[in-house]
């Protein structure tokens, strides 16, 4: 006999958003249907808690600090390496950090090379020019504007390292200007720029120059150009190309391939971000591709593909936006967006037999974080509530002013044989 989580009307069958705690409930509606399938999956459940846990004490004021996510191993490693980098001042110290920085991703390598080059320049060290080159060849993570700023600073440092380096910096500046200003059909300067990048062994800019010389309809050549720079620092560039390809595929009604390319782009963007931000690397390109894919197949299908490709889920950080109030429709949108994080908790720690109703509640703080996670008829010290709290720690609602928003949400976990 296989137990599964019964349809819950998308976990939002009875949800209320209010300035004051409330137990009001509403019936399921159509917009909740998308999440039903997320909870209709096989899984084991913990025994029901002992009696005695009743109505939540909703009158207790919530704390001012939201649920805190546990620090991951990667976050700890980045924090520790950052402290060592802050303290470094000698070549031997910087050199010792090169390998662990590379293991943590291109952003940490860029931070290391920048400080190393700036330190060498400030002391007029003999290796200042070499370190400026290394900094230049570490530029890449981030948007095109961020890459341009990085290269401009590194080239300024290279220019100040001596006459020979000044000439090199001038050639590369001209090449960069060519690539940035190249328009379709006007590629006269690109061969010279490509030659300059080959001489400096700059695979990132070689790929950018090659892409600049392609026509928009050259899809096969654009995909081939992704192989020109397999270095980790080129992840953001490759992601941008894949997102362009995904957009083209949507116009051809190839939604699944668009979703796959958009997901691969997200994976690349995650690799160029600090570990603490990778969960929030969802893009508009992925939203568009997933909407089309779900429309062609069934709601929630893209979330399944997302887990297959990424090994998990990726989200928008709604707290990056701010508003005067938090309308219930906006809060519901964020709730729908993050609710898939609760699936694993319910599958692993929900009831093993019978059926039960669970009423969760939480408070949305003004900074968009969540606190006061509670549940009726759930052991307050049990594995299920601990798991739920750990997942709520990742939720991010829009920042807003005014009184805190309190949410109650009722759902049912049931066992059905099949």
Describe this structure in words.
- With 418 residues, the chain is of the alpha+beta class.
- The chain has a domain at 14-70 and 317-414.
- The protein has 17 helices and 6 strands.
- It has helices at residues 36-39, 73-87, 91-104, 106-122, 128-136, 144-159, 163-181, 190-200, 203-212, 219-225, 235-251, 255-271, 284-296, 301-310, 328-338, 343-349, 383-392, and strands spanning 14-18, 322-323, 355-364, 370-376, 399-400, 405-414.
- A 4-stranded antiparallel β-sheet has the order 1-6-3-4, with helices on one face. Strands 2-5 form a two-stranded parallel ribbon.
- Helix 3 (91-104) runs antiparallel to helix 4 (106-122) and helix 4 packs antiparallel against helix 5 (128-136).
Defining traits:
418 residues, alpha+beta, two-stranded parallel sheet, 17 helices, 6 strands, globular, disordered N terminus, disordered C terminus
